[in-house]
Structure formats: C-alpha cells, structure tokens
Amino acid sequence: MRSVGSTLADFEQDLISNLYYQRGTTLESASGSDGYQTLALTVRDRLVERYARTAAAHYEANPRFVYYLSAEYLLGRQLGQNLLYTDTERFVRPIAADLGVTLEDLESYDVEPGLGNGGLGRLAACLMDSMATLDIPAVGYGIRYEFGIFKQAFRDGAQVERPDDWTFYGNPWEFPAPDDRQVVGFYGTTAAALDDPTGLRRQWTPGEVVRGEPSHMLVPGYGTQTVNIIRLWQARASRQSFDLSRFGAGQYKEAVEDIVRAENISKVLYPDDSTEQGRELRLKQQYFLVACSLRDIIRRYRLRNTGWDAFPAKVVIQLNDTHPVMAVTELMRLLVDEYKLDWDLAWSITRRTFNYTCHTLLPEALETWPVAVVERLLPRHMEIIYAINHFFLQEVEATYPGDLDRLRRLSIIQEEPDKRVRMAHLAVVGSTAVNGVAELHTRLLAATTLRDFAELWPQKFHNVTNGVTPRRFVRLANPRLSELITERLGDESWLTDLDRLEGLAGVADDPAFLERWRAVKRANKVDLAAHVERSTGVVIDPDALCDVMIKRFHEYKRQHLKLLHVIMLFNRLREHPDLDVVPRTVLFGGKAAPGYHSMKLLLRLVNAVAETVNTDPVVSRRLKVVLPPDYNVTRAQWIIPAADLSEQISLAGKEASGTGNMKLALNGALTIGTLDGANIEIRDRVGADNFFLFGLDAQEAADLRRDYHPRAYYESDPDLRAAIDTIAAGTFAKGDRSLFAPVVDSMLGRDEYLALADYRAYLECQERVEHAWRDQEAWARMSVLNSARSGFFSSDRTVREYCDRIWRVEPVRVA
Ligand code: H2P
C-alpha cells in the first residue's frame, strides 16, 4: 500500500490524482464543489492512514473500549478541523491562492452534519474529540438521520422549518461499511423457550425486520495519531421488500410501501411526537440504534475474546441520556434468549457494562413510554422490563420492608395516571454509575429528581462536569485569539493542556497586552458584523457591547427575561433620546422545537422587537437587536469569538450545566448569570469580581415557586409593567394586541420559571455591566482573566474524569 506523503509536493500530487480519479474531472473544468470534494478526499486520505494504524494498535492491545451511545451528534463542519488535525492547512493556502480561490470559498461547501439538537449533541461531539486526543479506545454510535435538525428560516418573523438535506451533495467524510450491516426486528410475538424451566428465557418472533446499514465518520485526535470513529446507522428495508408483482400491476405506491416504512426509521431527527405514530417512530429509532450498536459491539468483542465473563472488562457502554436506554433490555435479551446465559449472570454482566449520564432536572424531560406502545413494538422487551422490575423491587422491599410508597416511586413502571415505562429508572437500575453534568446538577439530581435512587445506592452517583473542546471552540473559531495566546505562552501546548491558560493571568495588568486583546475582539466583531449583515441585513456597530444569548429556545432558559430587558432599554431611549446608555447589540440565536408553540411565538416576538428597535431612528443609534436565522455549530463559531457578554440566565436549578457558557468564557466574554448549572463553577474559577451574578438561587427559587404571584411583581415595578404593557399594546405587532397576548398571559398568569421575580435583579445587574463597560481597560482585564481561568472547562478534563472514575480505561498509543 502506498502511504500518503507529508510534503507540500505530495499533497499537491494527491490533490491532482483525487481530482482525476475520484471526481473524474480536470483542473480546467472543475467546479467549486469539485474543488471542495477533492480537498476533502485528500485530507481524508491522511486520516484514513491514521485510522488504519489506530485499528491495528487497538487489535493488538485488545483494550477495554468505551462505547458511547447517543441519539445525537452535533459535529460541526469537518474541513477546518481536519486540516488542523492533519497539519495541512499550510499546504492548502498557497495552492488555493495559485488557483485563485480562498480556503474560505472552499469551506463554504462544507455542510455541517446537524445530527442533534443542542448542548447534548454537541457535548457528545466534544467528548469524542477529547477521547481521540487522549488516545482512549472508543467508538461512538448514532443514527445517520437522512434529515438532521431542521433549517430555520423566518417568514414574517415566524420560524419556518425546512428539511436539512445535509448529504445532498454527498458527504466526503464518511465511509460506508456494508459488511457490518445488522438486522433488527420489531413487533411480533413471544413464546416460552422449551429448554428453559425458569420461564425467564423466551423466544421472540418479530413481525417486521429492517436492516441497519452502518457508515462511519472519522474522529481524529489532536496532536496524536489516534483516529476513532462514530458509527452511524441508516435503516434500509430487508432485501425482499420490493414488491415486483405489485409494481408490475401498476401499484407503484404499494410496491414500495415496505421500503418506505423501513427507511422512515432513520429519516429525521426527532420526528414530531404529537401523534401516536410519531411517538412510536421515536421509540423505533431508539431501539434501532441500540439493537444495531449492541450487535456491533458484540461482534467486535468476539474478534479478540471468547466467553462472556470478560465482557464487562472489555466493554463499557455510556448511555447518553435516556434515548439509548432500551440497550439495557436488549443486552439482556441477547444474553438470555440468544446466547442462553442464565438470567442472573446476564444481569450481572449487563449492570457492570452500562453507565448512564443524565442531562436534565426537568422531570418532564425524562422520557417515559406508554406500556401499550412498548408492548406492541417490542413485546419481548416489555417482558424483560417487567422481570427486571420484579427482581429490582424485591431488592427494594428487602431494604425497606413494607414501604409501599417507596416501591411505587422507585418502580420502573409508572402506574398513574397511565402505565408507562420510566426510562431513567431503567437506566439507573441497569447501570454501574450514574452521573450528572455539573456539581449543582448532580447534587439536585440526588436530592430531587432521582432522590430515592440516591438514597438506595449513594455510591452509584457521580459528578462529571461538562467541558468543551478548545480545538474547535478556541483554535478554529478564534484564530486571532489563539495566535495571541500562543505568542504569550510560548507554544501551542495549551491546546491539549488548557490549564496552561493560567499563564495569561500574569499579563492581565499589562496595558500593551490588554490593547492587543481588545484589538482581537474588535476584529472578531467586525467579522461578525459582516455575517450578521449578510444574514439579516442589519448593520451593527463593532464598537457596541456585543451581548449574546445563544441556545435552544426553551422557557426555562428564559429568553423572555432578556427580551424584557431589551424592551425596557427601548422604552427608556424613546422617552429620553439623549440618555447616556452604553451602545449595545443584542444577539439571539437558537431554534424552537417545531411543536413548541409558545417558544415559536417568542421567537416571533424577538424578531418583531428587532424590527421595531432597528428601524427606530433614535433608538437604533444605541441599540440593535438581531436574530440571525438557523443557529448551528458553524454560526456559533462565528458568534462566540465576538461576544463581550454571555447571557446565562436560566432559572437556578433548571439548567443542568450549559456548555455555551464555557465556550464564551474561554473566548473572553464576561458572564451575566444566575447560580445555575456550571455557571457556579465558572464563577468560582474566574472570580466573583469577573462575573455578573444576579437572581434567586436554586433553593430560593424552589421556595418561591410554592406560593408565587407574578402579577405582584408586575404591579410593583414600573419598568417591568411598562415593558409588558408595551408588548400588550401591540407596539411590536403594528397595533395588533392579540398576536403576542399569549406571551403576556403566560408571564402574568403562571410565569413558570419566575422571570418576573428575577427581573429587577437582572436589570440592576445589567446596570453594573454598563458601568463596567465604560472602563474599557478594566473590562479587558476581566476578559483576560475569564479566559485564563477557564482551563478547567476543557472536555479533555471531562474525559479524564470519566476515565478515572467511571470507565476505568487506559489510553492506547498509536505508533
Ligand atoms: C442539555 C442540558 C444542558 C447540558 C447539555 C449537555 C440537555 O443541553 O440542558 O444544561 O449542558 O445537555 O450535558 P441543551 O439544553 O443545550 O439541549
């Protein structure tokens, strides 16, 4: 095998060869897309070589592997990352320049795979990056959704969802692996296994089978040779599904019915679950993912190992949230029904294999499935769940004799108001370790959401605070800042040892350094202004305070609290045109789930406020509001480096961790935030003086919620009243008072997340922000200290903690 060379000449040679032999075209006739695809293939060749060496090293070492099961991966664009990780960007720039194109032109063809929703999917991508960087033998498993997270557009300010056909032009970064396809069953019937007197082993005859076709994306480590993979499954009909005779009879639609039904399984990320069919399809997806993945894991295990005793020593499976939790029952089914292990041994292996990460505190976000749906779709799994629950409740009964209420609370089956399977309970029962994603989150999980389990098994509960990869979110997103940091610290080793950023603290008082720090931020803001103008038509001032709130639209995150602040500023500026306020650009970014009507209305209100503010001749001189459409990883990489102020204003006790908060702090934004999620840990590290804290803490919020009257705040606070009245008066709806009435009603009626209670504190805190902003040098100093002290939030640290405390895996170096 010819190996890829490492010089500029080799690279150039490979480009030409890929252009001819892979794209089948010539330099003279190549399109821009050919250019991108050729470059991608040439970079990919370098990764493939490392991947082959990684696979060989793993085969040789036969180590314990981490298998990360996740319904979501938000990988971001691949080209820039892979150029960096193969150190080939230096070749591409001069070659591109010779051909009269820029790297940025080529990058514009690079489509990000949007196989996730928000923080959870992006966390999966950051952890995979860090595992490869730390040489941890790992495979990620997920679904190759044909359509990823919808593309967001706005029509009259309202969100419209367009399909994300992310592979339309082909995806040069993935490899199909058809030989590793798997067959998965659904529906059907079960019967007693004749050879099993205990009755615990049974036989399932599925009523429908589909194929899972795998392909994989390469996940390179930075500064190392390891390349791991994420294996993505796509559903295909079984081979006999095409009905030739019906087709011959002209029944074209019926002839492909089975094919369509099978392929629908991996058609879209999170099918709308407002209908019965939609809910069943989601469960089908989840089972499809775990069934394919477990078979693949067992296939890999058996390449080097025999017998089942060693399985947990070689295999550790991390369940990313409740979506893949059916894996617990599927492994039991495989071991008991198919490999004929006895129940107790199978259960002991299963429990030692799995671990579960919980990402929420909202009880409604912990999935439950109607027993009737599980029974129909996965009849054998429902039996296994009952059996697991039976033995588990015996255990509970032995520990707490006669405590029926506790049994009811702990049970995997919820009885009232309807019978449902509690997936989080199944996960906890079936796992060795359960972890939360920030200190407060883990503490509250154990004290509230999963309290009975924490009492039963305190040793199961761990905290592993989230982290983010500094390669993508500092080095790639913010090359200017990276250069300055490298110059200051002497080399690039901070990219894999992020605590080294501490070294910046020493120059936080050096006016010359601060000047350069500010120049970087300003240049980033000029770039962002260009992006914003292109996507919204709005011109923003790069010298204004850049105030950003970028995250999924959800009521607990409280985008409406931010909006009330904006409206207050608008009212003030209209009343006092000469008021001395700090010029500000408020930038929102995020999508609302297609069925989440109240948040979609809020998005519409944000756009309406933006329109009113930006076209007001007086107000718009000091205030701009923008909501660039289709917030995604690519756009996050544009926005984060330019941010001055990071809005982390969820109601305390509701945001599990947050990771945007970490990315922004690392890039020198100052946080305005509540004592929620990882905000607390950020504040502890960067220092209370360099963090704008406001609002109720988790305990105060829980206490207040018990007897809360939002209207009292409205009535006693004139600014708040004016802001809400401005909405109610139809100011942002051309006088139409009804359009946004539901927003007003929800605030004054229930205000689930206590935005009104925190309003005054938030406003006062924003005044402290303004005051601080007026001293630009002091602000820059705080900004430097935020970066300098955020090294803890590297996902390398997160992965090390998982390795030491939960996975107990060792790195394998690749030669
Ligand atoms: C969720 C949590 C975040 C957490 C993230 C990763 C589900 O992400 O809400 O608090 O940081 O998982 O653990 P998100 O809201 O962004 O979808």
Automatic annotation (TrEMBL):
What Pfam family does this protein match (any one)? Phosphorylase
Reactions catalysed according to its record: [(1->4)-alpha-D-glucosyl](n) + phosphate = [(1->4)-alpha-D-glucosyl](n-1) + alpha-D-glucose 1-phosphate
The enzyme's first-digit EC class, named in words, is transferase
Q: Which CDD domains match?
A: GT35_Glycogen_Phosphorylase
Q: What is the stated purpose of this protein?
A: Allosteric enzyme that catalyzes the rate-limiting step in glycogen catabolism, the phosphorolytic cleavage of glycogen to produce glucose-1-phosphate, and plays a central role in maintaining cellular and organismal glucose homeostasis.
Q: What is this protein called?
A: Alpha-1,4 glucan phosphorylase
On whether Lyase is a keyword of this UniProt record, the answer is no
Which cofactor does this sequence's record say it needs?
A: pyridoxal 5'-phosphate
Tell me which domain of life the UniProt entry assigns to the organism this sequence originates from.
Bacteria
Identify its protein family: Belongs to the glycogen phosphorylase family.
- Which Enzyme Commission numbers does its entry carry? 2.4.1.1
- State the UniProt keywords alphabetically: Carbohydrate metabolism, Glycosyltransferase, Pyridoxal phosphate, Transferase
Q: Where are the transmembrane segments?
A: none
Record keyword Kinase present = no
